[in-house]
Hints:
By secondary structure, this protein is an alpha+beta fold. It has a single domain, classed as 2-Layer Sandwich (HIT family, subunit A), CATH 3.30.428.10. It is 22% helix and 20% strand. The protein has helices at 8-15, 61-77, and strands spanning 23-24, 28-32, 40-46, 85-88, 104-108. A hairpin with a 7-residue loop joins strand 2 and strand 3 (40-46). The longest helix is centred in the middle third of the chain and has 17 residues, at 61-77. It binds guanosine-5'-monophosphate and zinc ion (ZN). Zinc ion binds next to helix 1.
Amino acid sequence: MNTNNSCIFCKILSEQSEDKFLFKDEFCFAIRDINPVAKAHFLVIPNQHLTFLEQWDESNLHIIGKLVKNASNLTVLEGIADGGYRLSINQKGDAGQMIDHLHLHVYGGEKLRSM
Ligand code: 5GP
Ligand code: ZN
């Protein structure tokens, strides 16, 4: 497993008690964002410390499918699927990315502002 000792998401995966995860399997896990910017805001994160999309090779591409599918499953479980939701991945400075371990943001639970 590709991990990074200084990465907060790798730490959360290795240290956090099971009940803090919204979801966890062999590919990815989900947590509530510590600083939510919508009524519902959670993160779906690959277990591997994968970073920038343009550096991914073919062997990692299935992970994106896992992230999106599990994100959509969680919108149903969290009761935001019918109202609507947004998925987004920030990449580097211009997008305001703070944590380089790739993660999918899931926003919903209210009318979301357009960008
Ligand atoms: P980025 O800007 O990198 O796309 O988003 C990183 C997100 O991770 C931010 O929305 C931030 O609030 C969230 N975050 C940062 N540290 C933690 C943490 O320790 N726990 C949780 N649950 N979320 C975090
Ligand atoms: Zn990491």
